[in-house]
Design a protein that fits this description.
The chain contains 6 helices and 17 strands. By secondary structure, the chain is of the alpha/beta class. The strands form 4 sheets. It has an 8-stranded mixed β-sheet, with helices on both faces. Strands 2-3-4-5-6 form a 5-stranded mixed β-sheet, with no helix packed on it. Strands 7-8 form a two-stranded antiparallel sheet. The model has no long low-confidence stretch (mean pLDDT 95).
Amino acid sequence: MWIADNWKDYEVIDCSKGEKLERWSEYILVRPDPQVIWDTPKKHSGWREKNGHYHRNKKGGGEWEFFDLPQQWEIHYHSLTFHLKPFSFKHTGLFPEQAVNWDWFGEKIRQAKRPIKVLNLFAYTGGATLAAAAAGASVTHVDASKGMVTWAKENAVASGLSDAPIRWIVDDCVKFTEREIRRNNRYDAIIMDPPSYGRGPKGEIWKIEDAIYPLVKLCTQLLSDHPLFFLINSYTTGLQPAVLAYMLGTELREFKGAVDAQEIGLPVSSNGLVLPCGASGRWEAS
């Protein structure tokens, strides 16, 4: 398992009974997590003294309950700064477990000693985009949500990367990839963080089990002659690490490199255990 254990401003304090207790900078949140199936005593004071609690209802949605929580605040990871705010379906605008991937590809970009062009698909609020840009890459950031791209731009400004070579694109990721192939644009690295289910700006339906492999095949046509890495993240139970590894190993076999895939996780500070948070598949040049 790859563990995001370099955070100072974030921690999973405890988790029990379908919920996790987290510290985001100085604020304590309680959010649901379907992986937390154990029933251990909720002894930590944060369970009672929280600043926000997302309550899931039986219909699948839910709502926030706030206790002295600002509408927006900041969290830092190394040189990066992210604006946080609780919004629909329990999210805050950041997936802290992805920091383990930011560290990995950031080091690869720095060690490459050459210009690196990165394509970040389903790029959300820009965590991976900013990590790649801070390491020296030029990045094309693509997301179907205008609001998410605007939020990512705000994070770039907060991180001192307003002048970094980042191209901000609001578009359906598959259609954008097809157009880039026709334009003969090429990238040295590709990152994708596809949702389990989603809709594009014109109502295009995305279902990961059906769409991920065709998209990986398309993306291989965008790779430069000497690609550096290819990263796929998945939060879908059916896409196990071995499935991600098989896809990458099959579609990138013409390039000289190695494939690995693992669960990613976050350390739980109260007990020293690790909370699983999805899976990542990595191909890297050898």
